[in-house]
Amino acid sequence: MKKNNKNKIYLKPIKSVDIKKTNYIKWLKDKEVIKYLYRQELFKPFKNKDIVKYVQKLEKSKNDYFYFIKINKTNIGTVKIGHIDWYSRTGDLGIMIGEKEYWNKGYATKVIKLVCKHSKRKLKLRKLVAGTPSLNVGMVKAFKKNKFKLEGNRKKQLLIFNKYIDHILFGKII
Ligand SMILES: CC(C)(COP(=O)(O)OP(=O)(O)OC[C@H]1O[C@@H](n2cnc3c(N)ncnc32)[C@H](O)[C@@H]1OP(=O)(O)O)[C@@H](O)C(=O)NCCC(=O)NCCS
Q1: Quick one: 87 exposed, middle or buried, by C-beta within 10 A (0-12, 13-18, 19+)?
Q2: What is the mean pLDDT of the chain?
Q3: Protein residues with CB under 6 Å of any ligand 1 atom
Q4: Model pTM greater than 0.90?
């Protein structure tokens, strides 16, 4: 748990049974929130039950951890440590701040720090990786501020709004 002034930031495992009581599905329907997630299925109409199934799958998985980011009692977004390779002790990190009024206030930067600590101390991971479209300036900055190193740039790898965009790959030994 981390303090940000008087606001406590922490992670809470997401339970699929609780999804419909939260804003999670609302966030996934917000085109501005999902524009750089690179999940094409979210741009077409989708059924809420398919989202619940997606969360159920993560909940059962032995190689993925999926959390709500909480400020005091409010869910502001999600963070996933996914595709964990327990042999090499690596995982990949994905963040979505769904509540847009919390953008640009340093929360992603703080959450990355928190996830690095948690991954090292609790999950005993050794390294985290992450990828983001180059257009996602806030995400690129938040990783750099946490001393993630540039591990690659897949030039014009992603197709976003009819343009080919670089996929920036980051990694950090934690
Ligand atoms: C991308 C995202 C995680 C950034 O979160 P955030 O909490 O706003 O980021 P921070 O406040 O920690 O910002 C880090 C830096 O980026 C800057 N920044 C944030 N959003 C920015 C934007 N849209 N454009 C330019 N700079 C931005 C901040 O000003 C800060 O810079 P500074 O250190 O020079 O002051 C958040 O906007 C988000 O969840 N978006 C939707 C989902 C998403 O895109 N997830 C990532 C998929 S790869």
Answers
A1: exposed
A2: 95
A3: 33, 36-37, 77, 95-97, 103-109, 132, 136-139, 141-142, 145
A4: yes
